[in-house]
Amino acid sequence: MTIGKRKGFTAKGAGAAPGNDANERVGGSLSKSDHFYLQEAYGLTGDTGIDEREMDASGGTVSDWADPGGNSYRTHVFTASGTFTVNGAASGTLPNAVDWAVIAGGASGGGFFGGGGGAGGFRSNMISPGGNAADPSPGGESAITVSTGQAYTITVGAGGATAPAHAGLNGGNSSISHPSITDIICTGGGGGGSQSPNPNYPHGPGIAGGSGGGGADASPGTNAGGASPAPPGSPTITQGYAGGTITTTHHSAGYEAGGGGGARSLGQSSTGGNPGAGGHGGIGVNFADILGPTNTAVGYLGPSPTPAQWFAGGGGGCGYGPGNGGGEGGTFPNSFPSPWCGAGGGGASPTGAGSAALMNSGSGGGGVGPGDPHNPLGGHAGGSGIVMFRYKIGSVGGTKATGGLVSHTPTRTTHTFLETGTFTVTSPTLTSIQYLVIGGGGSGGVNLVYNQGTGGGGAGGLRTSFTGDVPGGPGGSTEAAVPVTVAAYTMTVGAGGNGGGLPNDNPGASGSSSTLSYNGGTIVCQGGGGGGSRASAQPSPNYRNGAHGGCGGGGSGHDGVKGDGNKQIGPNAAVPTQGNPGGDSASHGGGGGGGGAVGVAGASPGNPVGYGGAGGTGRSNSISGAALLYAGGGGGAAGAPAPGPAAAGAGGPGGGGRGAIYSPTHNVDNWAIPGSGNTGSGGGGGGADANGGVGAKGGSGLIVITYPS
Description:
Helix content: under 10%
Oligomer: single chain
Distance between the termini: 24 Å
């Protein structure tokens, strides 16, 4: 046994005279005579031990997590300006140094055939611009050594605002400031160039910034992307990349624009043409090693094999002509399959829509053409910046299991499966687990009738053993934890039902079931039922009805009937309580999809005629450490003659997709919205569209396992 040395009052009996009030105090350091007495009398060692205490700091949003090796960390995330205060220094083997990352505000894209906005400047002691985003390398800058009483001023830069009819506006600077350090400053992203006819605003080239904005068409000639100069006070630091250049060879060659620069690469250039595509935004960066696996409220969650939060991607440039869309927001890898970094996509002229960057992503907004229905002349806004700190606070015990995304707190270990995988128990001390299982959400119905809205997709079934969280439907109750032994268990995460235009008036596609295996059995949650559909030639009125599932799909306009919850996909046999029915239709409007556990049934449409029903509310569950909503039902689509967004059924809270907005023209911005991924939520119903309404995809399912650390 080791006698631990303690600071503070003298220990009771530690050399104090009789009657001295030190005899009534506890804690503190043992005297040499006490150590000698205990060693001689009881054979205990006189090792004084180590006083180990974690750093005490405040400011921002604070979370604790652990890496796969069992090292525990604390992260502070600043999404707005504030103060990082060190209230008490660490002691023992724990360091008094903090890792950090700073991202400035991203710029807005250019208006009127505009270039993509540049990402805000990016600096970190852990990750360097231009490195391998999937495997971050040290950034060459140093961690900040801190001491008790220090208060660091944190500035978070705003994103560049929409800029009507001219070049995009730069983002604001982000910084860490204190007299003990050289201020760490990142420069706001540079605005995208513009073909604006207004002589009072910059014209053509992208604007310099943390990462530069994309250049706009020169017709003929070259307009360069904005440069990426070093940040103030740090002349050797790289904080981003230049925007893409646009080059054309003859007059009226086209109206494309380059992509904004990102934290990892240049914005993509364009060679013009009539028609031609806009340049993609530069690649952004992820922060798996700073944020940890549970800070998913900021940045854009990229898919496997690197499911971390991404930031600082360049905005896409405007494209021109039929079939030539604007550039995608900054992505990784270079195939630009999706906006991983939260950057805005560029609009396509004359009718396509671009998009703004995510808040607190530091990414650039998309450039637009004059036909964008949201911003007919102004570029899309950039994302505000962010500042993050991380420091070690200790270690947890050896791991008891592997599989999924693993996070730790001092008391619990959690495994999150975003896709199918294996949960392997490695320690015989782990004998039971608690769980949350959600099936894949159903897709919204498909509309081939001009004036009819369709039903929203039902959410996937939800079952849980986590204390205090009760599944929905009549008689729902918290289930029991399940037993495990040292073995490998398959975790199957159900896919969401595929959206799109299905042939022959089929109902929307139902989601797939999710299955948790344990020692002696399985926990199965059914996929959500697809929403009822409509077609010009009805082969069967049953297709108007929502499908049964974990939660039922909503009925299609013109007498469609809701699908039931708590039913097996296909055979429609009863299953354990896990969801709710969808909503019936009313006249031309589609019914909402059923919601997840304890969510209300999908709301049936009311007056006036044609309004879609809202999706059922999802269920709150705190197994991940925070109370989050899951399994919202998809909203029913609006039918004629109900115009405007208010007529479309809202997606159920928890990730349900909004139903389509009634549109007399083929307008993609009014299409249904998919259910959120890994929430098991239903997709919105396809709408009354002149060229057919597309049903939106359901969200994929989820499995979460937790047990004492």
